[in-house]
Amino acid sequence: MSNMRSVLVDVLVALLILIFGGIIFARIAGVQEGETAPDWAQFAPLVLAMIYLGWRTLRRGRQRREAEAEMAEAGPEGGAWRDGPDGDRAADPPMDDYEWRSRLESSIRNLGRDAFEQFSIRILGALAVVDVRVERIAFDGAVECLGVHDDEERGSVYAIFRRSFGSLGANQIRDLRASMEGKAAEGLFISNGEFSSSAIDEADGGEPPIELVDGDELLDLMHTNRFGLIFDELGRVTGVDDDWFRGLARDERVRDGD
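Structure (tokenized):
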């Protein structure tokens, strides 16, 4: 979730630039109380905020490319390697939870449209939803699927997988109920973001029932199923498996060719 926090911090800083920049440039222009600042004093803070956001976007992109370059040096079986003190090749040290979670979450955000569709199907399989059929891809890239639970007593399920930079609200839960009407007995909403208290209340209080899987639960699920992660012999995470994510796009090409 660190990438989302970074974006939110950048937006907050840009807003501060707009607010305080407007005050500073108005004073530079000698604007008195009740007077309107000249055009240049009004637009200068906006230009500065845009320059800041552009710089931060380029910086995150460079950091992501550097991380990908490091992973390109992966050793045997996808494990990342480094030079040891005697010139030998030694396995990378384990990552802490914060590091691997933030990098894994960033990899999910950077998936292309087709790869994200395949990713959604993989995650549904890990949640014991089988015979998955993609119903539609929404304009914002959300994947809507229809499948059945492996547990025959539970029946059909309509699932939405949406990437989010913020908190999802009750309206999204109501939209899911409208989409699944007459199609499935249960609903499933998965997101790498968070659900607001109103969304949780809406999912718990209405019919048919809807299960919510937020970003933390999604990363836990991937860790349990070893999706997109590299582990050492002790079961500790040593890296994010870029080959696994690239394989999602290859799966899509194979499916289109069948």
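The chain has eight helices and eleven strands. The two ends are 36 Å apart (CA to CA).
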